[in-house]
Amino acid sequence: MNIYYFNSKTNQKFVKNLKDIDIKPLSSIHKNSIVLSGALEHRHLTYICEGAINLDLLLYDNAPGVDKFGDSLDYCNYVPRLLNSGINISIVGSEQGFVIWEDKKNDGVTYVTSNELHKNFDKALDKALSNLKHDIYLSININNIKPGKINGLDYSGSSPKYSLAPGALSLSDFTKFVEIVKKRKNIVFADIYGYSLRNPGDPLLVKKIIQELI
Fold it and tell me: Among 3.40.800.10, 3.20.20.190, 3.40.47.10, 3.90.1150.10, what is the CATH number of 2-213?
């Protein structure tokens, strides 16, 4: 897969930490691509909203659409828009996120809580993937991966306000998650977001996820 990043000042600084990875600024949409989309922007969803055909969404996030900065593509707006275009959606996330949008659930979206994953990982993931009929767009928020260490450096959890650690998967479980998705589905697009320059371990985590995806 090709690897790109949204060409913002923050991303320019961040990708300098991703050694030995061929990564380019994003200028147009390409299939078989991984995109680093930043944090708190949800711009990744514009790809799907703007005419993608035969492509479903698998969103791994802690609280998608609950953005205090008033993202125009918040949950209330983008999910109905995607459903109206015939896209199947499965959302896998932490418990807190589901409480926040309890009154905003839409028919046609499959929700898999972190409790379901921890109780019976294979069954819960089968529930999420069975709803997806086409090639998929996999969107990953690293703040929903439990903070830990890679090569002795802390990763994730860089912004406690947005890191909803309860229910988040460990890195080993998330790796298993990606392995199963790759075996069962064709990942056409993927993006990674939620990272921060404030946490020196985040580039290691992003690099690890890229290596799992390619």
Answer: 3.40.800.10
